[in-house]
Specification:
This protein has 513 residues and is an alpha/beta fold. The protein is built from 20 helices and 13 strands.
Length: 513
């Protein structure tokens, strides 16, 4: 058979079956109205192998058949195209169709004509985007082979560049999406999913962070995982799993390095908060050299995103701490336990997740819910701490805390404080419109306000206040159901009762403290 290397032709006594085409084939489209041209071309090139791939022939006997094949097959490498078929310029019109209508700039077009007078070479080469022009009479075996090799080499180089371009675009798309995330859990989860989709990985993967406790003991916590590691999310990497992967950890040359073998890949880097991050994938066998390079480019750029997330997390932690301290001061002033704001925050977060808010919104609500009563700073202590029932005038004064809190927090332009302002203003609005300060009704009340009023009332009833003793859990839940559609959003109350057991456990744990 004839075996083509990159620059020379060699002859071997070997059958096609022995060579086989396990790594795929080059698609070659023959477009000619003469059956003998198809048969002779396939016969001459039947044993052809280039870059360990043989040829797969697609045959069309007119331009319309060729168009159908071109639309159904997106990886045709070469077209051997006759000029004169059903019309004198059928081949030339097909060239325009390929380049202009279906916008295929990759396929290599070799024009073959038995009637050069119908399509003069100079005119065709200048006016049509073809890659070679041959008269059928000059296409000897040697010239046909040389022509096809040249076309395939050109196609392979173009497609390698195109794969690089597309791969870089995919990387930019993924990185853009990842850079918009603000918490490490979402980042890690989407990273694993996107990488597995992009590179068609079917193995297991994880993203873990290494911490050191107060005694300098190492803790390797899985932030996100797929396959066997999915069940360990939020937990430490099991010792058995670590031992299985120790060859990868041991071969990493410090932080900010990578190590891979025939099927596995691990990358490590340190974020700004001095936390070590590790990414692991297996099932890498099928990646070609281009995909492997692009894969490493993607992961090498992630340290910037992780640093951004770490900075954002530190900022949020700082803001959250300030909010909690401020809220505790307000609660202490009204002689209520400081843990009230923590419990309201916790219940609001649970409810937000159960009703379908995404993690970002749920965390935002959790952070700012403690600000719901910040306006009490403007209410006299004699009213705040009155052990008995408030008079009408005193209650009117108490109701002012909603707008006081709103005015304190609004206008900063910061997402946290703007959300806090909204909650401060709306956490006493009732579903039926009889709340305050504006008498908003139904879904005109923001979801944050509708959730916070449930969390606030539940906690107020289930714990001691200056004017009452804590209610038993069952009595609290009965009241919550009674006020569904009156004080509370009925759909939220349904969700509350759907997770009653979880809420009861929280109630019992808090009561035991």
């Amino acid at each position: 058979m004839v075996l083509f290397n990159d620059d020379k032709i060699e002859f071997f006594e070997e059958t096609i079956e022995e060579t086989n085409i396990k790594k795929g084939s080059w698609n070659v489209l023959i477009v000619d109205d003469e059956k003998i041209v198809h048969e002779s071309t396939k016969m001459v090139l039947s044993d052809f192998v280039y870059q360990e791939k043989g040829l797969n022939f697609l045959c069309a006997y007119n331009a319309e058949e060729a168009k159908t094949i071109l639309n159904e097959t997106d990886d045709i490498a070469v077209v051997l195209l006759d000029v004169v078929m059903e019309k004198d310029d059928s081949g030339l019109q097909l060239v325009k169709y390929i380049r202009d209508e279906i916008q295929n700039k990759f396929i290599r077009i070799i024009l073959r004509t038995g009637q050069p007078g119908q399509a003069p070479e100079e005119e065709v080469v200048i006016n049509y985007d073809i890659n070679d022009y041959k008269m059928k009479t000059e296409l000897t075996l040697q010239k046909l082979l040389t022509t096809v090799v040249s076309a395939l080499r050109s196609y392979a180089n173009i497609m390698e560049l195109e794969m690089n371009r597309r791969g870089l675009e995919d990387i930019l798309d993924i990185e853009t999406e990842l850079y918009e995330l603000h918490d490490i859990s979402s980042f890690a989860n989407i990273l694993l999913v996107k990488v597995k989709e992009l590179y068609r990985l079917v193995g297991d993967s994880f993203y873990l962070r290494m911490y050191y406790d107060a005694h300098r003991n190492k803790q390797m916590r899985i932030i996100a995982g797929t396959g066997v590691y999915e069940s360990y999310i939020g937990q430490e990497l099991p010792e058995e799993s670590y031992n299985q992967l120790s060859h990868l950890f041991d071969n990493l040359e410090g932080i900010n390095s990578t190590f891979e073998n025939s099927n596995e890949f691990m990358s490590s880097y340190k974020s700004l908060d001095i936390i070590e991050n590790y990414i692991y994938f297996n099932g890498m066998k099928h990646l070609d050299s281009i995909e492997s390079k692009l894969f490493k480019v993607l992961l090498s750029n992630l340290s910037v995103a992780v640093d951004n997330i770490s900075l954002n997390e530190k900022l949020i932690q700082t803001q959250s701490e300030l909010i909690n301290r401020l809220s505790e001061v307000i609660e202490a002033r009204s002689e209520e336990t400081a843990s009230h704001v923590e419990r309201v925050s916790k219940i609001a977060y649970i409810l937000a997740k159960k009703v379908g808010l995404d993690e970002v919104e749920a965390q935002l609500l959790r952070t700012v819910a403690p600000l719901h009563d910040v306006g009490k700073i403007g209410i006299p202590e004699v009213i705040l701490n009155k052990p008995g029932r408030l008079t009408t005038e005193e209650f009117d004064t108490m109701k002012k805390h909603a707008m006081i809190g709103y005015r304190i927090l609004k206008g900063s332009g910061l997402e946290l404080l703007e959300a806090g302002a909204l909650i401060a203003k709306e956490h006493h609005e009732y579903w039926n419109g009889n709340g305050y300060p504006h008498g908003l009704k139904g879904e005109k009340i923001h979801i944050y306000g509708r959730i916070t009023i449930i969390a606030d009332v539940f906690d107020a009833l289930s714990h001691d206040r200056v004017y009452k003793k804590a209610w038993p859990f069952d009595k609290v839940m009965a009241y919550m159901r009674e006020q569904s559609g009156i004080m509370f959003d009925p759909k939220l109350i349904d969700v509350l009762f759907e997770y009653e057991d979880e809420l009861k456990e929280l109630y019992i744990n808090d009561s035991a403290k």
